[in-house]
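Justification of computing resources. Each target in the renewal requires a structure prediction run like the one illustrated here; the chain below, 277 residues long, is used simply to show the kind of job we budget for.
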Amino acid sequence: MVTTISGQKTQANSPMVSLSLLWPLRIFMGLTFLYAGVQHLTDPSYFDPSKSGYIGHLIAQYAVGSPIHDFLLGVVGPNAVLFGYGVAVGESLIGIATLLGFLFRIAASAGLLLNLTFFLSATWTAFPFYFGSDIVFVMCWLTILLTGPQLKQSVDAVLARRYRFLSWLVSQPQTNPRMNLITPAITPVQTQTSQVQVAVPDGAKLYPGQVREVNRAFERIKQQFVLHRETQTILEFVRAFVISLGVDRNDASQILSGLQNIINRHSTEGAYTKQGT
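Resulting C-alpha cells:
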C-alpha cells in the first residue's frame, strides 16, 4: 500500500510488481533447460554411435518430414557429436543465465532459437501441433525476451547500474528505489453552463441595472451572433464594458449604447433578409 498525493492509500501497481509475476515462468524455464543440459552431458549413449540414443541417430529420425531436412542431414548429421555437445552445454548455460538473470535477453534469444529448431525437427510431425512441447517453449522464451530481466532481481540490473554502457541489458531505466512514482487518478472536472454574470465592484451604486442589461445582451449575442462574422467584435465590446465598470461610468454607458446599437442593427438586417426571401 502506498499513499497518493490526495492522502488516500492504494495498492501500488508498479512495473516491479508485474515483473515479479514472471518468476514462476523464469524458474521453470531455467530449471528445465539446466536439467536437460546436465542430462545430455551425463548420458553416455548420447555421444556413443553404437547406442540407440546417439545424437546422430536422433537427427536422422528428426529429419524425416522436417522443413529443415537438408540442413539436418547435410550439416548437423556429419557433425553430430559436436552439435550434441553444443546443445548440451548451451542448454546448461541458458538455464543458469535465466535463473541468475545474467545476459538475460541473450539467453532468452538462444533458448528461443534452440526450441524453434527443435520444433522444426523433433516435434514437427506432432499432430495436432500443440501436442509438441517445443512450440510452447518458443512462446515462453518470446515472453521472457520481450519482458527482459526484473530490476533488483537479476545480475543484469546490477551490471547496468555500475556500467552505463550495459544499460541495454535491463528492460527499463533505473530509478531511485526510494521513490514510488505514482500517477494520481485524474478526476473529471464537472462543468456547468450558466449565464454570464458580471461582478459589481464596491461603490458602484448605479451599476446593477447596467450589469443586468449587459447579461441580457450577452445572452442575445450567444443566440444571434454565434455564426456571425461580427462575433469577435461583440465579445470585445462585452470585455471592454466589464473592464470599464471599475474605471469610468460614462465610458460604460457609451460602450453599452454601442453594444445595443450593434445588436439592433443585426436584428434589422435579419428582418430585411427575411423580407427579401
